Amino acid sequence: MFQTLTVRECLEFAAKLKLTGTLESKIQRVDNIISELRLNKCEGTKIGGPLVKGVSGGERKRTSIGVELITDPSLIFLDEPTTGLDSFTATSVMETLKELAANGRTIVQTIHQPNSDIFEMFDRLMLLAKGKVIYLNQADLAVDYFASINYKCPELSNPADYFMGIMSIESIEKPDSDNIDEIKQSQHDVMDIYRQKIDFFSSSYLKSELKNDSKARDPRARELGSDDSAAQVKASWCYQFNLLAQRNFLNTVRLPQTSYVKLIVTIITSLFCVILFYDVQGTAEGVQNRNGALFFITMSIAFSAIQNVILIFPDERPVFLREANNNMYSVSAYFWAKIFSEFPSSVLTPTIFGAVCYFLIGFNTDDWY
Questions:
Q1: What's the pTM value of the predicted model, to 2 decimals?
Q2: Which of 60, 124, 215, 308 has the highest CB neighbour count under 10 A?
């Protein structure tokens, strides 16, 4: 998401590209998402970033989820949705996901170190270690199950932390030694013990009554249909180009710092050029100086032109990859919209550079050709 766009503008951008129908129906869908994800208070706030103050981490996460909910999918995969959030904000995001799941959506997520409040929100829990499933069933049955195989979770402890501990190789004590051979042998022994431990977990699960039934289904889950397949680009190329160009122009206007820096650098570089080649004469030495000045100007303008690729595009790259992979728009539409939106600054920069250098250096001012 672009840091200068508001929450509503991000959702409307996704809705216009992902949905078919009238503009009113798309706006109505955005209103529903904002209400469902409790984003009403921040819908007019910018996403924010290093240069722009914006929404909180939890609101940013919910906005990202909202972009994917535009098409109302029945199945949602989330990769660590609480990473980087404080405990309260992470719990708030999980409460939102819990509400979405209660409406019939299936939400599959990977999560590391959830607190006890978050752990209690899980319907089903899958624990994986070394590529093996050691538990897959109702989350509220996990503590009793592991206690039945002599791995009892301590009282008043977070079950998630306990499970992560017993699944980790670091839970196996390593003998203290300064001998290199003994260290290597102990590492080999630890690997063997860890492998046997995971094999025990896996075999115990496969033999238990809690072994997951692949045909079991939650009665609240919705059937997957043709509408739940991967979204395809529905908008025309020109419509994509128009929306992308508008977003880029808006981002440039709302984030003028980059333009200011580029303008200042251009002026300073042109002044250096004037200092080096001021008032070149028409002598043989002057001809060489003119060649040097032309080379300096050409290289400076060329490096200025690629600044957007070096300095700006890396920040936009994650957004571009995510949106392009979601088939929100084609790569060609993004490329030409980017070129079009940056054309004015691409023309203005060398014009200013030339206006400063041309007359002070003493290039031809007599013959128009």
A1: 0.74
A2: 60
Report the Cα 143 to chain-centroid distance in Å.
34
pLDDT for 254-264, tens place per residue? 888 777 888 88
Any bridge partners for residue 108, and if so which? 77
State the Cα–Cα distance between residues 69 and 25, nearest whole angstrom.
Answer: 15
